[in-house]
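To whoever is on call:

I kicked off a structure prediction for a single chain this morning and the downstream step that reads the tokens threw a length-mismatch warning. I double-checked the sequence; it's 114 residues and nothing unusual in it as far as I can see. Pasting both halves so you can look.
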Amino acid sequence: MKINYNGRRFSVVHNSNEGDVDTKTIFHYHQQDMYLWGHYFGAKVKAGVILGKVLDNSILEFQYWHYDQDGNLKQGHCRSTPTILQDGRIRLDEEWQWTSGKEAKGSSIIEEIT
């Protein structure tokens, strides 16, 4: 399964308590060749960006940075594994870890918005 993430939008279905994103957070993805970038905002996130790669199996590996509502810059890394839902939308099961501040780990699920 080869997925092109360019122009796709996602919202959060579930996130660990240690995370800053929730159902009010929207992600906008862009892709050219194997390179992925995007931005996100909402919930505790004032402004965020991602930068990474799409692997051969359409798994995403990326770094993320965002400013929270208090103006703190946070960063981490994430690995997202795709599943195609029955209606054709993409679901991403994510394992992430903060690399600044509390350095906690967590998991989240985001699904494509059509």
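Update from on-call: the warning came from a stale cache, not from the record. Cleared it. Sanity check on the structure: The mean pLDDT is 96.
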